[in-house]
């Protein structure tokens, strides 16, 4: 055998060996398939491009299977490019290495995150608020959530004309689901599961609640078993609703491949804005975050995405919605609250929180502490009334004290007539399936002291009362806080809005609380899921007066006109701007902001360049020939034209940094704005200090230089506010400087 022949044999043998290793690896992973999202950026501009055929061809090549019916989960083909499929890790790696693929990441399950709230914000009922009803009726809000209860009066089509001509969507709600001229579109993306019908119908109540909060009809004489009685309505009652169901109890949440498909359709359907009260990990890069991906393509088409901040507060750095092209909403309270009193056997009354519609008719029942009602668990678990701990013989017919509100249903299942539970924060009223009062730690300890000092202690839990003198707005303890974990120099959340104890439409197919057998059409719910559609309603209201405004202009107008808040209104760790962003939303003021900070698609591309998104990925995401200039690659994230200014610095070391911003005149034709900085321990200089804007839409740039000593470790951050004022408008932007940990 000659040397060339030997060389050829070695090459062939090595190639065959490599194939065998590959096949072995593939076989080994055959049983480890999971759903991956293959994101391929913007759709190619070629008229002959057929995304579904292209996706099928890629899958066939990678899997080696001629039929990919059992592999392909869904295509993204209307607003951006990609697909979701069942893949092994080996196949994922092959796809991720392809030039036409931006990213490949696993599909996950994300979590879902009023009569008086709109009045509280100043958006009064009926003719007491100026409205542009013709434009409002032409506005379409896309709701990505758990579906909708189409029979609700909040979504009745009575009095509505045909859908707007721009509407490109469909009503594909499944069996026994009908749309109308209010609810103009419905789609569902939930997986096929035994026992669950394929439908856009809401089986959880969450989607109906958020949709009606944003744009539900005005419905009079609504309450939750007599609590909160009044008129339920959305921020823009004349607007149309299109629902995209991605969440279902069958999957215990919301699939990310479905979320991306919902964005794909909603953008192409021509909705005007998207509200999505869903959140996930707060550490995912943009190219692996389906909400960030979908919202980017929505922004590029002029559609604003409003997203909930998350319910993981009050801990630091828990906000999950961090992209600057997403409007991130924290949650706060209103002046209305539901309180539930506990009357002890000695006549003393302690006041707790819950939405309790049940009556014990004043009858006092024996009290028992979870710790004393267990014969099978340690003290720590028993105090919390953990599952499997309570002894029914020691609980039946009694009121059980539990150190957490999480397990009251366990007490009920063991025969308790009511429960008194402790909450470290105690600032929220929740619905339970039997009488429960949530007490603050002090009030809870009062009950424990009474029990320990009394023979045969007794108490009763009263039906809830409604009060209207609660201090408000105050950021809720559960609302996720900043700072931003991915881009430290972008302040998140952006704004806060009512999210606690909101009465809105619900679905009779979803219980109002865990273990609840009641079925209701309207219910009280709490979370940033509830604050998010409030801001969506405000954004839609604003868009009726300024239909041509871009998403960033609408976001800027809402942020710079927000009610100022302070540390005293963000208790539970005093995170201030990291709790409430620019402040509390003010719908009326937002209509006339005076100046706005606008950030276009190209500005966001430059922002991505500064984050080292270059070459192939940048072109695929943008859908054009975008490339990063040297200036863009060296740009700092804090110089994105954002309505807030934030920077991370070293602790206890001197610093000096500059923010560059540009404002656009949307107020009067000829205006002079003067700069003022308030509430600062920082040295802040603005140049120029006066802006002369001689015409509408005129732009002026300025820079803000901030210097000082880095915040001490125990203080974490310092803040100030820049206000541009022409004597009529006050354009307010937070400036936040915080220390690295």
From TrEMBL:
Residues 639-737 form the Subtilisin-like protease fibronectin type-III domain. InterPro entries: Peptidase_S8/S53_dom, Peptidase_S8/S53_dom_sf, Peptidase_S8_Ser-AS, Peptidase_S8_subtilisin-rel, Peptidases_S8_3, S8pro/Inhibitor_I9, S8pro/Inhibitor_I9_sf, SBT. Residues 137-583 form the Peptidase S8/S53 domain. Keywords: Hydrolase, Protease, Serine protease, Signal. Residues 1-26 form the signal peptide. It comes from the Eukaryota. Pfam families: fn3_6, Inhibitor_I9, Peptidase_S8. Residues 35-113 form the Inhibitor I9 domain. The active site is at 145 (charge relay system), 206 (charge relay system), 529 (charge relay system). The keyword Amino-acid biosynthesis does not apply. Belongs to the peptidase S8 family. This is Subtilisin-like protease SBT4.5.
